[in-house]
Design a protein that fits this description.
alpha/beta; 2 domains; binds S-adenosylmethionine
């Protein structure tokens, strides 16, 4: 096994994980989406949550933005398969013509740069990604600008102060140790076969994963930040999501997590190491699943 096997490191596998799908469904079900007509889905990934939003907002069109062209390509395929009219590239930046309901426009770009006129949308979402944004004040300010007064801003995140109970922290710590040991064994086998060892070269990540560098806010801090940026929080919910070894292996295989956890190793190898050691990590704590809490917030943009 001294050659790194090709691996699917996209978000697709975790996006289909049952525990994750249920959590996303439950988040979306709490949102008042029926009257919404223009959704902006930031860090949209493969569209896993955007599709749930569209299913519950029958009058809406959706703009999706993501930094990663691979995820945008997958999102385009997924939405087209569901029968939506999909626009990509420069065309996707234009506001869809009036009456162009069920249009999905997908753009490669940053959630922190919103090239849309003021008050373009009546719903802005960022699912499972707000923890990746360092400047949360700046993000909330930009969202307030593109959102109509009375429009909703909603996000879910599994990375905030309070997301991991102590046992979960222990399992995640063991997971990292097991995965690092797995890579060390892989490297030793390469050396034994006369090939160069695996070296860790930090600072080369394409997506600059920052979930672990950014400060994690408490729910109360989120409420305060949103209030200061012109929002009123309508709903704040913490959801306990249970991950078994399948869920952990799926999320570990995702490049976003693999790059963050094992920064500097070849991403496909990091992805395999985490996927292959998820069950061991749970065993080490003598548990079959871990509780990972999700924060869900829905806020409305105040009129002034
Ligand atoms: C965990 S995935 C979530 C995808 C999707 N929202 C979902 O819930 O299924 C995080 C996504 O955020 C994207 N991302 C990270 N930083 C970003 C940024 N600054 N602007 C836009 N997208 C970003 C990644 O490329 C990735 O697709």
């Amino acid at each position: 096994m001294s050659v790194i096997a090709p691996t699917d490191t996209t978000y697709t596998r975790f996006a289909e994980d049952q525990a994750y799908v249920q959590a996303n469904n439950a988040f979306v079900e709490r949102l008042p989406l029926a009257p919404v007509t223009r959704i902006l889905d930031l860090a949209c990934g493969t569209g896993a949550v955007g599709q749930l939003l569209m299913a519950r907002a029958p009058k809406a069109s959706l703009h999706g933005i993501d930094l990663d062209p691979v995820q945008i390509g997958l999102a385009a395929e997924n939405y087209a398969r569901l029968g939506y009219t999909v626009r990509v590239g420069d065309e996707a930046l234009a506001t869809p013509p009036a009456g162009a309901q069920r249009t999905v426009s997908l753009v490669v770009g940053s959630a922190e740069v919103l090239p849309f006129p003021q008050a373009t949308f009546d719903c802005v979402t960022i699912a499972n990604a707000i923890h990746l944004i360092a400047d949360k004040d700046g993000l909330a300010g930009s969202i307030a600008r593109v959102l109509q007064p009375g429009g909703i801003f909603a996000f879910s995140s599994g990375f905030y102060a309070g997301c991991w109970p102590p046992v979960t922290q222990q399992v995640y710590y063991e997971w990292l140790k097991e995965a690092t040991a797995w890579i060390a064994r892989f490297s030793a086998e390469r050396v034994a076969a006369g090939e160069p060892p695996i070296r860790r070269v930090r600072g080369k990540s394409y997506l600059s994963p920052v979930a672990y560098q950014n400060r994690w806010l408490t729910p109360a801090e989120w409420r305060e930040l949103l209030n200061a940026k012109g929002f009123e929080v309508l709903d704040l919910n913490e959801r306990a999501v249970m991950f078994d070894h399948h869920s952990l292996a799926s999320v570990g295989a995702y490049s976003g997590l693999a790059e963050a956890q094992l920064a500097g190793y070849p991403v496909e190898l990091a992805s395999q190491a985490l996927a292959n050691t998820a069950a061991l990590a749970l065993e080490s704590a003598n548990v079959t699943s871990v509780q990972h809490n999700w924060l869900e917030i829905c806020a409305v943009r105040r009129a002034s």
